[in-house]
Amino acid sequence: MDRRWLMSAMMMGVVASLLVVLGRAGNETAHAGYPTALAPSLVTPSGHQPLPLRPIRVVCTTAMVADLVRNVGGDHVEVQTLLGERVDPHTYKPVLSDLNRLQSAEMIFYSGLHLEGKMGRLLHKLESQRPTVAVAESLPHSRRLAEDDTGTTDDPHVWFDVAAWADCLPAVRDALTRYAPQHADEFAANASRYHADLLALDAEVRTAIATIPPERRVLITSHDAFRYFGRAYGIEVAGIQGLSTESEAGVHEINALVNRLVEQRIPAVFVETSISDRNMMALLEGCAAKGHAVRLGGRLYSDAMGHAGTTEGTYPGMIRANVQALVSALGGTDGTGLIQR
């Protein structure tokens, strides 16, 4: 029996099982207007001073989304992330352990705009059972980039425009407030504080990128994930693969990028932490064959952040690490102190 056919059939069975179990759960659970699942406030024997309630159990698909939720929810949320470092959300296939986490969650936050491609059906099923929020889909259509000329699908990589990602915070704040209105003031204050922090980060990125000579502001990566970054900070971007890593790069695409690198004398290209660098190696070999030496400028964080507990495991740390790599490889200077933070 064909091994690939067998693996595909097994995965279809897993997804089908997930949906069946979730469907049963949906018949037993109704969430109209985000009613809180938290237990009523407990009181001391004296009848005074309510004891603190436990945190809301939250599951997020990506670390970027989890970063927003943690900063808004503070001590009132207990966040688990499904997809860790070096995991590609475009191609990730849900497994039974994901079901256990999702079933135990009181709220679910995901990025949306088809980023979690193979999990999409599962996430939409959950929307009828518990508060399930697609944070990037809260961004107005006028702020989104279309995937292609048809305009029917949006580019999901919103977080690379820091100001746009900051504007997704109200969706998190409002969802948490509907679920736990007793903490509304704290959620609002946290969201406001983090929004200001991210706008300051946005300004830092603009200042750092501006130090790169204009003719060198070209970012070529493994897949086309940085278009929001390019629009926000004035950099040309191109990816060997398309918006989704499920698309395969062909010889024509690689040759076109080789010609561009040679003609514009671009000194560096970048690989991504969550994607194989096989196609990028072919690109470098093509440039070398035409007498133009191109080096790897570094590994960028794209669809996944760094290891939890590290600087790069936070959203600001991820952005700063990427900017450091770009500025260093493309001939800029760091007069803002951005790199050292």
Question: What's the quick description here?
Answer:
The model is unreliable at 1-12 and 19-52 (pLDDT under 50). The chain has helices spanning 3-28, 63-73, 96-104, 120-126, 162-166, 169-179, 184-209, 227-233, 251-264, 278-289, 315-329; strands at residues 56-60, 77-81, 107-110, 132-134, 218-223, 236-241, 268-272, 295-300. With 341 residues, the protein is α/β, with parallel strands linked by helices.
Describe this structure in words.
The protein has a four-stranded parallel β-sheet with strand order 2-1-3-4, with helices on both faces. Helices cover 42% and strands 12% of the residues. The protein is globular. β5, α8 and β6 form a beta-alpha-beta unit. It has 341 residues and is α/β, with parallel strands linked by helices. The N terminus is likely disordered. It folds into two domains: 150 residues, Rossmann fold; 119 residues, Rossmann fold (3-Layer(aba) Sandwich). Keywords: Metal-binding, Signal, Transport. InterPro entries: AdhesinB (IPR006129), Bact_metal-bind_prot9 (IPR050492), Lipoprotein_PsaA-like (IPR006128), ZnuA-like (IPR006127). It is found in: Cell envelope. It holds the Pfam family ZnuA. Belongs to the bacterial solute-binding protein 9 family.
